[in-house]
Amino acid sequence: MNIILEVLSLILVSIGCFFMASAALGLYRFPDIYMRLHSSTKVNTGGAMTILLGIILRSGISSMSAKIFVIIVIIIILTPAVSHAIARSAHLQGKAPMVSFETHPKKIHVYDHDFFRRR
Amino acid sequence: MMIFVYILLIIAILSSYRLFVGPTIQDRLISLSCVSVILIIILVILSFYYNNTFYLDISIAFLLLDFVGMIAFTKYLGREDKK
Questions:
Q1: B44·A71 Cβ contact <8 A
Q2: What ipTM score was computed for the predicted complex, to two decimals?
Q3: Which residues of chain A are modeled with pLDDT < 50?
């Protein structure tokens, strides 16, 4: 029973590390503020939850696992709030989002500067 | 369990790339938020490894401080073009 829990927690922590690495890759590759926000912040929250659940499985029922559960709840509430605040500040500063025009002859990504005028 | 600490440190260094070359200030904020979440998780893993609950209190305080600082910074930035 103990070995099963250890293997399960190792698998969960490895999946969380993979999520973190993909968040870093998305932060490196995407071309725009909003795309970077979309790729990195959600995946980062999911990876953090997965790694902390793995450590809770390993440490059993104790005061340590209760504190880790508090950290999970705080991360679930606060990290999307920070993401929303960053997107709101970028929108209020007038940063234009980047769109891909399918009808463009070169099919390139360009900044959509008319985005705020059309609304 | 110690190998995950090294893996997460490498990921934190790779994810702080946007902190230095980000074109706008919001990119730097996103990268800072990612790095702080990764450092909190490293603190939790160290707390399990050394069997010491002292690191968990530090990580909770660090998480709340990061939230307050980020909200203040985005409030300051978003006030610019509002009229």
A1: yes
A2: 0.86
A3: none
